[in-house]
Amino acid sequence: MSLPARIVHKRRATITDLPLYYSGQLLKKLTKEKDFKKYYGELRGATLFLYKDDTQDTYTEKLDLERLKSMELDSPYQRKEPTIFTLTLHTEEVQLKMENADTGEEWRGYILTVVKKQIPSKMQLLPGQMLLLQDALDQERRRTRACPALPPRPPFLLSASSSPTTPKDELDHCASALPACFLSVTRQEAERMLEENPECGSIILRPSTLANNYALTLRQLTPSGPVIKNFRVTTTNSGFVIELDTAVTVSSLDDVLQYFLEKTEYRLHPYMEFQPYDTCIDVSPAPKCISITSTTPKIVPKAQVAPMLRSQTKAELLPPPTKQEEDKYVVPEDQCPDVHNLMLVQMDGELREVLKLRRENFYTETDMMEATTKRNETTVKSHSGTAQWTTESAAE
User: Fold this and answer.
1) pLDDT tens for each residue of 263-273
2) Which of 8, 52, 171, 228 sits a CA distance of 20 to 30 A from 98?
């Protein structure tokens, strides 16, 4: 049962970890071989990955085109005839065959563009095809420009005779670029650590005996018992290659570790040595009491400069202030009220004066009315007494 094309494409992108620029059917053979073999090719980055067919998610072969020396057309260019190219690589010569000239011209354009980082001249392509080729060129330039440099080889693997002293900043960068489970141990030491300390983890990344390469040692449980395995990780210009039956290229050592964790369904764990814990809390002695009152008299340092003569202040030069009248506001000198505020102060003072006069008049009138009432009552009483006395006299 074949997988959907979307899943196949996603798996290829995960395994190769490179952008896809061009793909199609082609035939390939070495110059010393007699017959061509049919493949489905994908140009990802500057690498040509070859699959048995378009449903296979893991590549069968790959050609590293970064070391391409030349690409020559063997057969004459005819539109209805197959096109054959000879690629001269660093260690071998490979021939590629396309079914027609148009497909061959597209393959030639994409291969030379990603290798030389420029579009070849005199391309027999349509304007739309040239635009796609330009997009691939821009993407490849961004990829190679943004690709970080590979971490330097650990300093303990560098010999004093073959390399100069590594600066401190390079050592710090090297240490930060390595995973936590990277240990400077040999194969025998790594296997012994995994056997004796299975609770600490099951994967150790270590230096290889080959220069600029690494190795990975893991301990895996099987139905027949634990098994120790060692894998080689090779450093290349394009990343790190995990040497499996089907080689896998990743961009960093962290990705190497992540690849093994995913393939083992996270049943394995990176080796991490347990750090010892403290079991006792030390109580620090209490600080000595410091007396606040000291028996030693405090020594005041003498002035090094003559004291400044104090001049008379403005308050001393001004005459003493006059006594302010009661019930009036005093405006401070340091404030500068505007005309409106001054008018309000004056009106308030005048209002207070008017109220005071009215209050005095009110009390005066009240006293006068009370006095008049008392006089009237006295007069009435006197008249009543006189009348009574007259009546009584007449009666007698």
Assistant:
1) 988 889 999 87
2) 8
